[in-house]
Amino acid sequence: MSAPAASAASPAFSVVICAYTEDRWEDILAAVSSVRAQSRPALETLLVVDHNEALRERLLKEYAQGEDREHGAGREVRVLANAGPRGLSAGRNTGIAASRGEVVAFLDDDAVAERDWLRHFAEGYADPAVVAVGGRTVPVWASGRRPDWFPEEFDWVVGCTYRGLPPGRVRVRNVLGGNASFRREAFTAAGGFATGIGRDGDRRPLGGEETELCIRLSRARPGAVLLIDDRAVIHHRVPRPREHFAYFRTRTYAEGLSKALVARSVGAQKGLESERRYATRVLPAGVVRGLRDAVLARPGGAGRAGAIVAGVLSAAGGYAVGSVRARRSGVAFSPAPVGEGAHG
Question: Is the entire prediction scored with pTM above 0.85?
Answer without folding.
Answer: yes
